[in-house]
Write a structure and sequence with these properties.
Elements (H helix, E strand, L loop, with lengths): L4 E3 L3 H12 L4 E3 L6 E5 L3 H11 L8 E3 L6 H4 L5 H10 L4 E6 L6 H4 L4 E5 L4 H10 L3 E2 L14 H8 L5 E3 L11 E4 L6 E4 L5 H8 L3 E2 L28 E6 L2 H10 L5 E5 L11 E3 L6 H17 L4 E5 L7 H11 L4 E3 L1
Parallel strand pairs: 1-8, 2-8, 4-6, 5-9, 10-11, 12-15, 12-16, 13-14, 13-15
Antiparallel strand pairs: 2-3, 3-7, 4-7, 5-6, 9-10
Helix pairs in contact: 1-6, 10-11
The protein binds adenosine monophosphate and magnesium ion.
The site of adenosine monophosphate (AMP) has 19 residues, from strand 6 and strand 10.
């Protein structure tokens, strides 16, 4: 067990976080998407520690976080023109681009793939820590593998206290779901994971963007995952989640009819009247940004309250709602009931 330091976003603490990272330690850091578990991307032993601390499968690659565009040139010797267009439009921000990797990127970072995922976060503390560390930081979400991603430092601590050198508290994450992942290593740019930057926004810059079928469907056994993270059960609370597709009235009727001990509802704000089971809300039906911000915290709250069966109101898969739907589908193991 490590004696995990709890750091703030003060200048002195940013320096301390940077120092720890340079020395090969693991530090959980705030970003605008979710909290990340960071290590020096060029330090193989440090990166191996991320997999260990999270209990993450070795073939699930990490995203490398950078503070400035010139660092991208270290990570790839063959950067597609589209990467610069995307960087210009969306960096710093919640977009990850996949490009061919250079030899400097250790295999442990790319999960054995010839490509590397890169993102420039906009969160001020993330920027400050990257500057202080002076190296690119490999960082997946700062949860134990399989659990909902943490959007507060307290949730990070619940999963990783004693397993990492430090946790930096930078407040609640603004976006709340992980970054959009787009690969530029296919003929047509391909969306592998929806997130804070929407498909519509990407298409404004790139023209056509294909959406990987794994975004809204379970991977077929014979198909290799384009994004290895997509094949694992993911973002799941302890409660068994079922998504209910339909109106607020149909949702209420179904849940009340199926109410048993341990049943709870995950529903939209303003649609809780008449529910006979405990509930947690995650934004209004028409507010995809609020749903994204609140989803993971709501799933963890349902667990805290001892929910065993959780019926979730289905988000509209448009805009950031596509990311919310994608995460909830995985949390539910693709169990969906159309009402
Ligand atoms: P996390 O940071 O925990 O949200 O996980 C990173 C996500 O990015 C996972 O879904 C990975 O599969 C995906 N990813 C990272 N690197 C690559 C890559 N080189 N090719 C495809 N997907 C990647
Ligand atoms: Mg993750």
């Amino acid at each position: 067990m490590k004696d995990t330091k709890h750091l703030t976003a003060s200048a002195a603490d940013m320096e301390e976080a940077g120092r720890l990272l340079r020395e090969g330690e693991l530090v959980a850091i705030p970003t605008e998407t979710v909290y990340g578990l960071a290590a020096n991307a060029f330090d193989e032993a440090a990166v191996a520690g991320i997999f260990e601390a999270k209990g993450r499968p070795q073939d699930n690659p990490l995203i490398v976080h950078i503070a400035t565009l010139d660092t991208l040139l270290l990570l790839s010797d063959d950067i597609p023109e589209d990467a610069f267009r995307l960087a210009d439009a969306f960096w710093p921000g919640p977009l990850t681009v996949i490009v061919p990797k250079s030899d400097r990127v250790p295999t442990v970072v790319s999960g054995g793939l010839p490509t590397v995922a890169v993102r420039m976060p906009s969160h001020q503390a993330a920027q400050a820590i990257l500057q202080a560390a002076g190296v690119p930081l490999a960082a997946p979400s700062a949860n134990r593998s399989g659990s909902p991603s943490p959007t507060t430092a307290a949730r990070v601590a619940a999963d990783l206290d004693g397993r990492v050198a430090a946790i930096v508290d930078g407040g609640e994450c603004e976006v709340g779901v992980e970054s959009t992942v787009v690969t530029l290593c296919t003929e047509v740019p391909r969306l592998l994971r929806p997130g804070g930057i929407t498909r519509e926004q990407l298409e404004e810059v790139l023209g056509t963007v294909e959406v990987d079928e794994a975004v809204t469907a379970p991977l077929k056994d014979d198909r290799k995952a384009a994004s290895p993270g997509m094949k694992y059960k993911h973002y799941a609370p302890k409660a068994q989640v079922t998504i209910l597709k339909g109106s607020a009235e149909a949702f209420r009727e179904y849940v009340n009819a199926h109410a048993e001990d341990g049943t709870a509802a995950l529903c939209f704000e303003g649609e809780t009247d008449g529910l006979t089971v405990p509930y947690v809300t995650y934004g209004r039906r028409d507010d995809d940004a609020a749903q994204a911000r609140q989803l993971f915290e709501a799933l963890r709250t349902a667990d805290d309250r001892g929910a065993r069966v959780l019926y979730a109101a289905c988000p509209r898969p448009i805009g950031v709602g596509l990311a919310v739907y994608n995460r909830l589908l995985r949390a539910a193991g693709f169990r969906v009931v159309t009402l």
